[in-house]
Design a protein that fits this description.
Two copies of one chain form a homodimer.
Chain A (H helix, E strand, L loop, with lengths): L6 E4 L19 E5 L15 E7 L9 E2 L10 E2 L12 E12 L2 E5 L8 E7 L8
Antiparallel strand pairs in A: 1-2, 1-8, 2-7, 3-6, 3-8, 4-5, 6-7
C-alpha cells in the first residue's frame, strides 16, 4: 500500500506549532500544485467548489496512539482515532477547503491548515444529499 | 509514503458491482476488526459515535483519471477528483459510519459500503462546530 504524491501544498504555514488546528480556525489561503500526470483527474474542478483534500502529514509521528485532544492540558488523554491529531499510525490529513481560483495545475484554496511542502495524495468532492449525486 | 493496515473490514459485501455506491444508499452493517497493536488508539470510541473510516480500496484501479460519475451513461466523463469513484491514483476510501456496538477490537458499524477484506488505514471523528472541538 504505497501512496504516490500527486502534488504539493504551497502555504505561508511552515511551523506545526504555529499552524491552526483546523482550516476554519484562521488558516491562510494556500495553493495546491498538482503534478502534470494527474491533470485529467482535475477535469471539472471549478472555482467555488468545496473539496476534501487528503494529504500525507510528513512531519507527524506514527508511533503515537494516545494524545491530549488539542494539546489541552485540561483534557484527559484518549485514543488518536477519537481526535484529529496529525500523529497517528497512518498520518493522512483530511482537509475541507473551498476553491477560490483554478489556474491549470494550480488550485488556490481557502481554509487549509496543512504546512508548506505537504504532499497531496487525493482529492474528493464533498458529497451532497443522495438526490444530488 | 507506505501505509500500514490497522485492521480489516468484515462485511456481507463481496462484489464491487453489487455494492451500494455510498454507505447511506443501502449498505448492510459491517464489522471493523482492528489489530491488537492499535488498541490504545481506539480508547474513547463509543456506541453512537459518528466516525470517518479511511480504507485502502485494494480492488480499485490506479491508472484511471477520468470516469463517468456513478457509471451513468447519460453523464459526461470527468476527472476522478470530482467524483467518489474508487478508481483513482491513490485509492483511499472515505466512509462516514455510525458505531452501533463496541466489543474490544471489533466495532460494529452502520452505513459502510466497503467490501469484505478491505484494509482499514485510519479512523477520525466527524468534526463538530468550532465550539465543540
Amino acid at each position: 500500500m504505497e501512496l504516490v504524491a500527486i502534488g504539493t501544498v504551497r502555504s505561508p504555514l511552515t511551523d506545526r506549532a504555529a499552524a491552526p488546528k483546523q482550516g476554519d480556525e484562521g488558516a491562510p489561503e494556500a495553493t495546491l500544485e498538482f503534478d502534470a500526470g494527474v491533470a485529467d483527474a482535475l477535469d471539472g474542478v471549478a472555482s467555488g467548489d468545496e473539496l476534501l483534500v487528503l494529504t500525507w502529514l510528513d512531519r507527524a509521528r506514527r508511533d503515537v496512539l494516545r494524545v491530549r485532544p488539542r494539546d489541552d492540558p485540561a483534557r484527559p488523554v484518549r485514543g488518536v482515532f477519537t481526535t484529529r491529531s496529525p500523529d497517528r499510525p497512518n498520518p493522512i490529513g483530511l482537509h475541507r477547503v473551498r476553491v477560490v481560483a483554478v489556474d491549470g495545475l494550480h488550485l488556490r484554496v481557502r481554509d487549509l491548515e496543512a504546512l508548506d511542502g505537504t504532499p497531496i495524495v487525493d482529492v474528493k468532492p464533498v458529497l451532497g444529499g443522495v438526490d444530488e449525486r
